[in-house]
Design a protein that fits this description.
Elements lengths: L21 H18 L3 H7 L4 H9 L18 H14 L1 H21 L2 H13 L4 E4 L15 E5 L2 E12 L6 E8 L8 E7 L5 E5 L11 E12 L3 E2 L5 H37 L1 E2 L2 E2 L4 H29 L5 H26 L10 H10 L7 H13 L19
Parallel strand pairs: 1-4, 2-4
Antiparallel strand pairs: 2-3, 3-7, 4-5, 5-8, 6-7, 9-10
Helix pairs in contact: 1-4, 4-5, 4-7, 4-8, 5-6, 5-7, 7-8, 7-9, 8-9, 9-10, 9-11
Bound molecules: acetoacetyl-coenzyme A.
Length: about 400
């Protein structure tokens, strides 16, 4: 039976209003300059040697990037949610590793605290996160629970005014660098219908450890690893939401993480155009630039199409966040569409560069490797395909959520 709670097919187009402002232009420009000046220098070597760098996070904090879309009363920049998308787009235009920092820190971690935290918790955690003094990350995936997120086995057991957590998480971006983690667990001995709980875990907690993963195809200048919890005692006031809310906290975190991945993917397409347009104008075959060849033009046109559709899709999601509408469905669509478009653009960029697309003297082979990952993390291509079909068929609920992000402009 189709889901009775599916309250709409889609947001009415007449209601949309995401006119960009001068502030958005300034954020775009400063994130672009940050990428050019702070991320690109030395990147090829860091990527070759798979060397991540904690100093980049400090620079991002100093540049104000880590406080985007956090209200001023918690020390943030007080910018709207579209600003976060624009910054992700421009950072990923330089390198995916920089955008991943925004995804896990701003998207998965800070915005989830903003959505689910008590006032005391927001006051406790957000100011340090907004300034970059602390960097946040996210721990959901386990060796045997990726797409099947409900199958996690990391446990939390209540013990007085603490929870004792045991288990491990894998594929954790910033595993070695983040100061605090949003960790999703299963509650042992709970009678809750969905026995999950989410905690903010300080990396200095006894029983916490991390280890880097090596040999990745892409995002080599970024840190990815595993985190382990051995009889780790987490204070009860670090529970985000209530006991039983953990799975919903995880899914809503993904609404924010996927948004940053969708917007970042547009940056890869722009980077492909940045590389391909001059190359196609300079490189000559038979006495004329390859840009004059229709098959090359077709590939350039397809990248332009992906960039423009991608922007509209993520602006729409940003607007829905600003106006307090549930956007799980639209965010999944944007993530699914934009990641595929970025991978397609990067593949075409390699094609246009010919043999030069196959060596790291040119950046397009990095775009090709980096864009592949985004079709796996934060919901595989297949998961989003299924979600889109299930929404349309009425098999998946789209009802408004009890806990929403604060709308923009932020109050007080
Ligand atoms: N916000 C809040 N609540 C939500 C929600 C959201 N976005 N989405 C669902 N929920 C709620 C539902 O309302 C439901 O609650 P009720 O029972 O009260 O109605 C409950 O959560 C269960 O929802 P579903 O029935 O939709 O759950 P499901 O089991 O069908 O979900 C799935 C299946 C969509 C495939 C989900 O498991 C999924 O998204 N899997 C992919 C996980 C993923 O993306 N992992 C990547 C992790 S991050 C990463 O890659 C690493 C990193 O470091 C960045």
């Amino acid at each position: 039976m189709p889901h009775a709670a599916n309250h709409r097919d889609s947001v009415p187009y007449w209601a949309m209003d995401f006119a960009l402002t001068q502030e958005h232009d300034l954020i775009r420009e400063s994130a672009y300059k940050f990428g050019q000046n702070e991320i690109l220098p030395g990147l090829r070597e860091r990527d070759r040697e798979a060397k991540s760098d904690r100093a980049t996070l400090d620079k991002m904090g100093k540049a104000g990037l880590l406080g985007l879309s956090i209200p001023a009363k918690y020390g943030g920049s007080d910018t709207d949610y579209i600003s976060l998308g624009i910054a992700c787009e421009e950072l990923e235009r330089a390198d995916t590793s920089a955008r991943v920092v925004m995804s896990v820190h701003s998207g998965l971690h800070c915005m989830t605290i903003l959505q689910w935290g008590t006032e005391e918790q927001k006051q406790r955690w957000l100011p340090k996160l907004a300034s970059g003094e602390h960097v946040g990350a996210f721990g959901l995936t386990e060796p045997n629970a990726g797409s099947d997120a409900a199958n996690i086995t990391t446990t939390a057991v209540k013990d007085g005014d603490h929870y004792v957590v045991n288990g491990s998480k894998t594929w954790i971006s910033l595993a070695d660098y983040a100061d605090q983690f949003l960790v999703i667990t299963k509650l042992s001995g709970s009678s809750a219908k969905a026995p999950y709980a989410a905690f903010i875990v300080d990396r200095n907690t006894a029983g916490f450890s991390s280890r880097a993963l090596h040999g990745k195809l892409g995002v080599r200048a970024g840190n990815t690893g595993e985190i382990f919890f051995q009889d780790m005692r987490v204070p009860a006031d670090c529970l985000l939401g209530k006991e039983g809310d953990g799975f919903k906290v995880a899914m809503s975190a993904l609404d924010h993480g996927r948004y940053t991945v969708a917007s970042g993917s547009v940056g890869i397409i722009t980077a492909c155009l940045d590389a391909c347009v001059p190359y196609a104008n300079d490189r000559k075959v038979g006495g004329e630039p390859i840009g004059k060849k229709q098959l090359v033009q077709q590939m350039i046109a397809s990248m332009v199409q992906g960039r423009e559709i991608g922007r509209l899709l993520y602006y729409k999601v940003g607007w829905m966040k600003n106006t307090g509408q549930r956007h799980t469905r639209e965010c999944s669509l944007a993530k699914w569409t934009n990641c595929a478009a970025a991978f397609d653009a990067a593949n075409k960029a390699v094609e246009i560069h010919g043999a030069y697309g196959y060596i790291d003297e040119f950046p397009v082979e990095r775009y090709f490797r980096n864009s592949r990952g985004a079709m796996i993390y934060e919901g595989t291509h297949e998961i989003h395909t299924l979600m889109q079909a299930e929404y349309e068929l009425g098999y998946r609920s789209d009802k408004p959520l009890a806990h929403m992000l604060p709308t923009y402009p932020f109050e007080g």
